[in-house]
Amino acid sequence: MLVLEFTVPPFPLTATIGHTVWQAGVVHARRQFDAFDMIICVKGTLYMEEDGVTYDLKEGMVLVLEPGKLHQGYRPTENETEVYWIHFQYPYSSPSMLVEKHNWQQPLLNRTDQDTEPHPASIDIPKFATVDLRMILPLLTEMLLLHNVLTPYRSFELHILFGELLRQLQLGMRKSSPQARSYFLGEQVAAYLAERLELPFDSKQLENDLHYHFDYLARCLKQYSGMSPLQYRHHLQVDRAKRLLSHTELPLSKIGEQCGFHDNNYFIRLFKRLTSFTPGEYRKRYQVFRMD
Fold it and tell me: CB atoms < 10 A from the CB of 1, how many?
């Protein structure tokens, strides 16, 4: 699927939102401007062209027109056609943003609860795709109401709702992709492992609880996160250990037990391999309180 890839921060921000119903015989105007133009069709068909590429934007579809490209209608509407549009800005738009994407891997980011800089995030917006109007229409309606009586506070709320709209579009792409089942199974495996960190790793129990063979579940998690179940578990265990080391006075053996390690030496070796610190060194550097 063709998608527009955005790295945030900065976030794409709404400039305006509009809604119209066109009768049969209307042709979209010819124009070019320095903003993205997202068009969502909720009834009929809008016939659009962008730099010579034609799109039949039917009911329940979205098309994102790009800054600097010439767009126009290439034929009149045949029936009553209802559309919403959103003009939005992103400061670093370039032709390289448009990519063919087949998977939505979600690798774990290196982080602590003492971070002071935001972590990079990514947003994928479909270039031309089917959308779930049941999820999208309430957001569009609320955004339009805010925009009709715009104030500084409402402008902030409008940007937040636009972010939720982008999230729904991204979720819809994952649900409709050929890898949808493996992606959501990978998500389930990740959540399952996170909920059972203090328990011993048991591949058979994982099979029984999620009702799929372990090898298939492992492949799904690999597609989702880039890690095997044991690698994913180790990263979650070390993350929990980091929090306990910085926020408690528990001895290392107790922290290891609460993170699912029953061999303290193995806990120390793994922690050092994944963080470059021993647990004691990490505590000395990142502990957020002291005892007098």
Answer: 15
DSSP 31: B
DSSP string, 70-121: -EEESS--SS-EEEEEEEEE-TT--GGGEEE------PPPP--TT--SPPPE
State pTM to two decimals.
0.81
Q: Return d(Cα 42, Cα 58) in angstroms, integer.
A: 8
Biggest CA pair distance of the chain = 80
Contact between 41 and 61 under an 8 Å Cβ cutoff? The reply is yes
The per-residue pLDDT string of the chain (292 residues; one tens digit each, 9 = 90 and over) reads: 899 999 888 899 999 999 999 999 999 999 999 999 999 999 999 999 999 999 999 999 999 999 999 999 999 999 999 999 999 999 887 766 888 887 777 888 877 777 788 888 989 999 999 999 999 999 999 999 999 999 999 999 999 999 999 999 998 888 777 677 888 899 999 999 999 998 889 999 999 999 999 999 999 999 889 999 999 999 999 999 999 999 999 999 999 999 999 899 999 999 999 999 999 999 988 887 665 5
Backbone phi and psi for residue 198, each to the nearest 5 degrees, phi listed first: -80, -10
The whole-angstrom separation of Cα 178 and Cα 180 is 6
What is the identity of the amino acid at 235?
A: H
Helix (H, G, I), strand (E, B) or coil at 234: helix
| Start-end of H helices in the chain | 133-148, 152-176, 180-195, 203-210, 214-225, 229-247, 252-258, 264-275, 279-286
Cα atoms in the Cβ-side hemisphere of radius 13 Å centred on 13 = 9
